[in-house]
Amino acid sequence: MTDAPSLDTLATAGTDAPVVTLAARPTHPASSPEAAWWRHAVIYQIYPRSWADGNGDGIGDLPGITARLPYLRDLGVDAIWLSPFYTSPQADAGYDVADYCDIDPLFGSLADADAMLARAHMLGIKVIVDLVPNHSSDEHAWFKAALAAGPGSPERERYMFRDGLGEHGELPPNNWDSVFGGPAWTRTTNPDGTPGQWYLHLFDPKQPDFNWDHPDVRAEFEQILTFWLDRGVDGFRVDVAHGLIKEDGLPDWEEALEMLGGTDDEHTDGRRPPMWDQDRVHEIYQRWREILNAYNPVEDPDSHDVNRDRILCAEAWVNPVERAVRYIRDDEMHQAFNFDFLQTAWAAADLRAVVEASFAAADSVGAPTTWVLSNHDVVRHASRLGLPVGTKRPNGIGVGDPQPDAELGLQRARAATALMLALPGSSYLYQGEELGLPDSTDMPDEFRQDPTWERSGHTERGRDGCRVPIPWEADRPSFGFGPSDSTWLPQPSVYGRYAVDQQVGVEGSTLELYRALLTSRRTLDLGVGALTWVEGYGDDVVAFVNSGVEADGVRTLVVANLGPAPVALPEGAQLILASGPLGQDGTVPTDTTVWARF
Ligand code: GLC
Ligand code: CA
Hints:
With 598 residues, the chain is α/β, with parallel strands linked by helices.
């Protein structure tokens, strides 16, 4: 065990060993206490299919969401982000949109969306919706018109149609693979039945890519933004924001198209992938920012209300971080997901490095950092962190795969979340993580619906494991997900143990931990505080002080112990909360994070 440093040594670099001191300079300065809401918000992702089913058809829906919103008020989140609920054949669970200005009957109606928005706002919760601009569904009216109109028609110009290579056009126009596996091109059939042109789809064949050089496409999306802004949404999460513009000439690319692998040029001879992160994509977001700003003009600081800002958040898997933050320059988007943080191994040095790099990059453009550990595309962190440290992040876990250690995973997940929520900036939570929910890691493959499973030739299990319907009440059919026992993906029997009603008011439950974290985060102003590293705890500990706004002189010490030996808190530090039980002597055991006041 490392001895307890005294409060003085912590604060002032005293003489007694072990010396645990504050770094000379903060790594990240405090923002103003009046900072705009999105600079420090905690945003909860709802995956509509899987959160709450109002009508018992086994698929979550908007009325189900509206009815459950008070739960989120009690949890203490600032905003929700909803994955797509638009008209869609659901080939990629709604990320294949056929009509951007209507609701799929699976999820309800526009009236249901309005009711959900009104209820959320009444409860003080902002609402961010998902915008999918890279591609539509192949059942979008424009794509159907393009197919019917044939080669050379203006209708085809809105998508990426090309003639094939080879004598008879029988080969795809280039060698790109799709993110879900298989070629990124599908050949069409002409109206007269003969084989025709090919169209590009970076994802499923049912998700044709738009041609963002076409003015119709730009105008259409500006109108879609306005449509939802006028209905009162507080912002947009922008799907595949780094993909809209492709390099001229669509040159071949030898690397596998691994969107979630980023765009690092480490293995690519300094060449950037021609389908990702092209410079010209930024002009699109500059235009969108103007549209959003018009709803709360920034020109006049006196009348600009920072609580009414509408925001854009980029899903941009871009490396290195210096390029990623170009999406959040002050005339573009407000936030971008921090996937580097999500992908960091459970190792103190790696975590310190990613926090440091994230602040340096975001601060260089004056944007808030964001933090995220789970979403609908990755194995939940309670499962991921139960795999041996250093395991490559799996794309789904199934029968026959090495299984995570659930108990260890949960302990680390709680410690990771307690670390994340103490960091200045904005944090994203994924539905169910507040219950400590693991992935479904033994789902029989016949239930899988993610196109990845089929398109990869059954080599990548894909994302169904993190998309299983949420358990609300242990003793009800579908664990209270809906009024019937039907669920679109099977719920593992262990989910009953994680149900909301098993955790509310239960000391030490993961749900109560999240509530405490969110309450304290708010009262201590951690979202806008300055971060200063605490040095001297050794390599296995991540320790820092978050100053809050310091008006009241209260500072929060955060100690995350990732090493095997327990560590002591400085004398006089008063415990605020801990992600797990402390040692009998008050020390912080392995895989545990504490917040303390001093
Ligand atoms: C984003 C979404 C993912 C979807 C893909 C294609 O990465 O998060 O779920 O499959 O885009 O739209
Ligand atoms: Ca339903």
